[in-house]
Amino acid sequence: MQKGAIRVQTENIFPIIKKFLYSDHDIFLRELVSNAVDATQKLKTLASVGEFKGDIGNTDITVSLDKEKKTITISDRGVGMTAEEVDKYINQVAFSGAEEFVNKYKGQTDGANIIGHFGLGFYSSFMVSSQVEIYSKSWRPDTKAVRWECDGSPEYELEETVKEERGTDIVMHINEESEEFLDENRIRTILEKFCRFLPVPIRFQDTQINNTSPAWVKKPSELTAEDYQNFYKELYPFAEPPLFWIHLNVDYPFNLTGILYFPKITKSYEIQKDKISLYSNQVYVTDEVKNIVPEFLMLLHGVIDSPDIPLNVSRSYLQGDPNVKKINAHITKKVADKLDEMFRTDRKSFEEKWEHIGLFVKYGMMTEDKFADKASKFHVMADVDNSTFYTLEEYRTATGALQTNTEGKLVILYATNPVQQDSYIQAAKAKGYKVVKLDTMVDAGFINQMETKWENVQFNRVDADIADNLINNEAKAISVLSEEQEGKLKEMFGQQIPQPNIKVELKGLSAQDQPVIVTRSEFMRRMKDMAAMGGSASMFAGMPDEITMTVNANHPIYLNILGEGNAEKQQKLVRNLADLALLSQNLLQGAELTAFVNRSVELMGKE
Predict the structure, then answer these.
(1) Of all helices (H) and strands (E), which one includes residue 601?
(2) In CATH, what number does 215-345 get?
(3) DSSP code of 383?
(4) How many CB atoms are closer than 10 A to CB 190?
(5) Closest Cα partner for 135 from 193, 76, 182, 189?
(6) Annotation-wise, does 168 bind a ligand?
(7) Among 537, 529, 340, which Cα is nearest to 439's?
(8) CATH 3.30.230.80 residue window(s) in the chain
(9) What pLDDT is recorded for position 585?
(10) Longest dimension (CA), the chain
(11) Which residues are involved in binding ATP (predicted)?
């Protein structure tokens, strides 16, 4: 029997492992099962090149739980180890400057990164064990099986033993603080999280827990639409079917495979980030993929696998690694290319999906300039009837000079609530204008961004002004009222609308237009919308709306009101017309709304 001390430059290695890695203590299963997979894959490689000439046989990896003995055992039938190899790979913990290591990582909690950086995968077993045994027999002919034992101190024992089969068994004697890992459901949950798609069968309690050949490791040409749909169900059993997917398959200048799915998302969606899982050679790493996947695609679902990203990544690593930046850029390009292809080859289907995918496209155009350049070809705007979709250039062509203002800017008219803004939409349509629907939660920001990115484009909400002024603020229609009548009418409205933030003006509009039209300043409304979403315009949050009340002097109702002999009734009729206009903009509430209802009932009861 050989006895000795594990050769590290400090005797503090085990306390360090337990202390620094404790926050990630369930990672020990991933590390040990991954080692078993590596040993199995090495044996298959040796067999393929003719070095191993024996019978490979069953290479399933088994994880066993013995509650009575309080042990977890991980067994493989891979390459195994000789006594010399155990001494080399287990006893000589290969990192230099251990004191520097201790000082550098004191107080750090990113334990997974420490494991990967210093090759401490096997030693993660001591996070949960009071004692660890290794039983191993090498694939090499005429070698003896060995047993290694350590109790978490630098002292170990290494001796010959009897083991019939090639491979390695690691037996962990679980310590009192970690007895939660003696629960069968806990172990199964951890294995399903970390080992769900490992390339070698993993068995726990006689049941295989992994899919060794998930869809993303296959070539796109080998998969049908049903295969992609079934894999999505495997990942998300309770989700609605995806809209479509993108299969990533790159081997230069970096390795990247994976499948990204576009889920159904509407304007009233619940934000569900962290639905993309990162793998490294089919080993689960993390579902925090913020730096790998562009931010605007964080709502996608699926899997990304790249051996170019270390198994144990830290956030600081992801932020600085050049491969990660290349992968991020590649994913952006692949998504843009896929959307462009869908738009060109089946525009009708693309438009049917726009309610869901528009959110991604708009957010991408706001945050990624390269994506915005490509997306301008397939970004579409639906009209308020959902009957026609326009790209920017198509909208420009459809509206022609009619919606180009005196500054040469294309004015895009939009509605955020077509039902509530219907009267304004109809007034704009009567002028021949095209009104599009922009009603998602990102549209306020999107509009602001596109006005800076698109050349000579301006957005006006359809209720931002009277229809005559929406393109150019130069309406000078002639009023049928005399100067005296106009003065009287303006005086009555002024008496009934004392609020300083409401500006009353008379204009001679079409007799078919509404008698009173309330509009809200486009600039002020945008600033208040941004403030409500916690944007940089918070100073506008408490400011009153800028409201313009346009009295249509050409509406026939005013001749009747002016001819009314009862001054009190005149005032009530004027106030009701004003309140109706405010109500159309959802600006009449509380006591004022109650008064309007009571007044309306009273007026209807009079001759």
Answers:
(1) helix 590-604
(2) 3.30.230.80
(3) B
(4) 19
(5) 76
(6) yes
(7) 529
(8) 215-345
(9) 82
(10) 120
(11) 31, 35, 76, 81, 96-97, 168, 315
Dihedral (CA of 595, 598, 600, 603) sign: negative
CATH 1.20.120.790 domain extents, the chain: 483-604
Q: What is the pLDDT of residue 17?
A: 61
Spatial separation of the C-alpha atoms in residues 245 and 250, rounded to whole Å:
16
179 is in an annotated binding site: no
Give ranges for CATH 3.40.50.11260 in the chain: 380-469
How high is the mean pLDDT in each 10-residue block of the chain (607 residues)? 64 58 73 91 91 93 97 96 88 49 47 45 86 96 94 86 95 94 95 93 95 95 96 92 92 88 68 76 84 84 84 56 81 93 95 90 91 94 93 93 90 93 91 93 88 92 86 73 88 84 84 86 76 61 77 89 87 91 86 91 78
Residue of 241, 281, 244 whose CA lies nearest to 259: 244
Architecture label for domain 380-469: 3-Layer(aba) Sandwich (3.40)
Query: CA-CA distance, 371 to 413, in Å (whole number)?
Result: 25
The DSSP string of 515-528 is: SEEEEE-HHHHHHH
Partnered with residue 512 across adjacent β-strands are none
Q: Which residues lie across from 1 on neighbouring strands?
A: none
Q: Which residues of 505-537 are buried (b: 16+ CB within 10 A; e: fewer)?
A: ebbbbeeebbbbbbbbbbebbbbbbbbeeebeb
* 1 SS3 class: coil
* Burial state string for 399-435 with b = 16 or more CB within 10 A and e = fewer than 16: beeebbbeeebbbbbbbbebeebebbbebbbeeebbb
Which part of the chain has CATH 3.30.565.10?
2-208
Q: Tell me how far the alpha carbon of residue 464 is from its chain's centroid.
A: 33
Q: Which residue has the tokens 């037996």?
A: 171
For domain 483-604, give the CATH number. Answer: 1.20.120.790
DSSP 3-state helix, strand, coil percentages of the chain (rounded to 5)? 45, 20, 40
pLDDT tens digits along 328-363? 889 999 999 999 999 999 999 999 999 888 988 999
Would the annotation count 81 as a binding residue? yes
DSSP state, residue 391: -
Candidates 563, 562, 560, 469; CA nearest to 509 is 469
Q: What pLDDT score was predicted for residue 108?
A: 44
| CB 360 within 8 Å of CB 406 | no
Q: Which residue has the tokens 């708009």?
A: 362
Phi-psi region of 258 (alpha: psi -120 to 50; beta: other; left: phi over 0): left
**What gap in Å lies between CA 358 and CA 364, rounded to an integer?**
10
How far apart, in whole angstroms, are the C-alpha atoms of residue 344 and residue 323?
31
Which among 344, 340, 387 is positioned nearest to 364, based on CA atoms? 340
- What does the pLDDT read at residue 540? 62
* Residue 97 assigned ligand-binding role: yes
Tell me if 111 is assigned to a ligand binding site.
no
Predicted pLDDT at 116:
42
CATH class for the domain made up of 2-208: alpha beta
